[in-house]
Amino acid sequence: MNTFQKLVAVSLLIVSLSIAYYFVIFLPQKENLKTQMKLENGNKLNKCLIAASENMTTFWNKECASQRLSKDCILPEYNANRIDKLKKELRDLCFSRFPVNN
Question: Is 0.85 surpassed by the pTM of this model?
Answer without folding.
Answer: no
